[in-house]
Amino acid sequence: MSDKDNDIIVCRCEEITLGEIREWIDRGYGSAGEIKRALRAGMGPCQGRGCQDIIMREISRRLNIPLDQVEAGSVRPPVKPIKIGLLADRGE
Ligand code: FES
Fold it and tell me: Hey, how many other C-beta atoms are within 10 angstroms of the C-beta on 92?
């Protein structure tokens, strides 16, 4: 990908562009976890399922390191809203 792709949204949940991710990689952030903490990319409702692989590939490409050496961020279950009644019913 060239720099003309900088406006592409990589993390749809947090609306983080490829250009923002590249900027932080160039600042020395070299793992998906570091990018996540700096930009919140991967902290949205899907918890990185939609963006983490893309971020890791970009780190690999930009830093010229093998993809399997790029450290992944932590993965948590997706956030799903539930009805408050379900919680209340459990108290009976
Ligand atoms: S697409 Fe990045 S957290 Fe969902």
Answer: 4
The torsion angles phi and psi of 90, rounded to 5 degrees, stand at -70, -20
CA of 92 to the centre of ligand 1 (A): 36
Q: Quote the percentage of the chain above a pLDDT of 90.
A: 64
- The domain made up of 3-90 has a fold known as Arc Repressor Mutant, subunit A (1.10.10)
pLDDT tens column, 64-85: 999 999 998 776 666 677 777 8
Say yes or no: CB of residue 73 within 6 Å of ligand 1: no
Predicted structure pTM score: 0.80
- For a ligand 1 pocket test, name from 8, 9, 11 the mutation site with the most ligand atoms within 8 angstroms of its C-beta: 11
